[in-house]
Amino acid sequence: MKENRTPRTLFLDIGGVLLTNGWDRNSRMKAAELFDLDYEDMNERHHLTYDTYESGKISLREYLDRVVFCGIERKFSFEDFRTFMFGQSKAFPIMIELVRSLKRKYNLKVGVISNEGKELNEYRISNFGLREFVDFFISSSFVHMRKPDRDIYQMALDVAQVSPEESVYVDDREMFVQIAEDIGLKSVHHTTYEATREALAKVGLAA
Which tens digit of pLDDT belongs to each residue from 32-41? Predict the structure, then answer.
């Protein structure tokens, strides 16, 4: 991480940083058990089409039609499955409070850069009150590009009207952190609250 001027903008991922992942392997395994689905088949179908959903090119219903329903008469409805899917999201209150406190203390702009499908993204933003402290969202399903595409990071910088040197990026995926660093963003690989708090303090954002 480069030590330059005090950051004006804090960019964050949602899944793994502010909230649990929206629809990860563990959630899919739970779904397979609860709804009596063939996990291997569902998981293969998921990997074949989820990028398309996260890029905003198909709806959640289309994604689930391809991955879960597959033209088969199921004992559960789309609404049943969607309710389960959305219910897998949980907040990390200590991380949310850290971001809130840093925003207040340093008058930061806070932006999200996330790979999430539209319906899931909208639910998570609304249900967990993210609009209360996040100023703007660069979500893959709305901008039709996904991390690790460098352009999504550049779009976030352009929207915030800041340079990479004035910004910090936090993500739980090491590859995404490395790409952000490649374009000059001071970046933090989030593993724990304590480690991230310490890393942010080193770049001028002491809680």
Answer: 999 999 999 9
Q: What residues does each domain of the chain span? A: 9-21+90-202, 25-87
Q: Are 203 and 7 in contact (CB under 8 A)?
A: yes
pTM of the model: 0.93
Q: Which of 187, 11, 144, 14 is nearest to 89 (CA)?
A: 14
Residue 109 in 3-state DSSP?
A: strand
82-139 pLDDT per residue, tens: 999 999 999 999 999 999 999 999 999 999 999 999 999 999 999 999 999 999 999 9
* Sheet strands side by side (includes 136-139): 136-139, 109-114, 9-12, 167-171, 186-189
Sign, CA dihedral 200-112-130-89, equals negative
d(CA 11, CA 2): 16
How many CB atoms are located within 10 Å of the residue 196 CB?
Answer: 19
Q: Which superfamily does CATH assign the domain made up of 9-21+90-202 to?
A: HAD superfamily/HAD-like (3.40.50.1000)
In sequence order, the 6+-apart residues with CB closer than 8 A to the CB of 92 are 17, 18, 19, 20, 193
